[in-house]
Write a structure and sequence with these properties.
about 130 residues, alpha/beta, Nucleotidyltransferase, domain 5, 5-stranded mixed beta sheet
Length: about 130
């Protein structure tokens, strides 16, 4: 059984969060990336009883920012952090949303939590 996992789609302005329920990934919420980020993440970890973090790792310059964030996060939380290649998750999420029957106004809203859910589900599927 996979421990309850919080997925983080890191962005410089927003951070998308998703949570696992057994073998399913669910979008959770989007939090701002600001001076309250770590406090907000600790609160979510506690509320959701997450046992580990899956941190999406992107490419190039963003990958370096994510690695710095991961090091800071390790100092703040007491649960394992797993880095996972999520290079195309935002793009794939955009495609899925654009092809969905969702209202246009909803399609223009931030999708960071859906992207986190997407790569969390991919990761869960590789664990079984």
């Amino acid at each position: 059984m996979i421990p309850k996992t919080l997925a983080i789609d890191f962005g410089t302005k927003r951070i998308g969060l998703a949570i696992s329920f057994a073998t399913l990934a669910e979008p959770l919420k989007i939090i701002p990336n600001n001076d309250k980020t770590f406090a907000n993440l600790k609160k979510v970890i506690q509320e959701e009883n997450a046992k580990q973090i899956l941190l999406g790792l992107s490419e190039q310059e963003m990958a370096e920012k994510i690695k710095v964030f991961a090091k800071q996060l390790e100092k703040e939380v007491d649960i394992p952090i797993i880095l996972y290649d999520e290079t195309l998750s935002s793009k794939e999420t955009h495609i899925k949303i654009n092809n969905s029957h969702m209202k246009k106004s909803k399609k223009r809203q931030p999708i960071d939590h859906y992207a986190a859910s997407h790569f969390l589900q991919e990761w869960i599927d590789t664990q079984n």
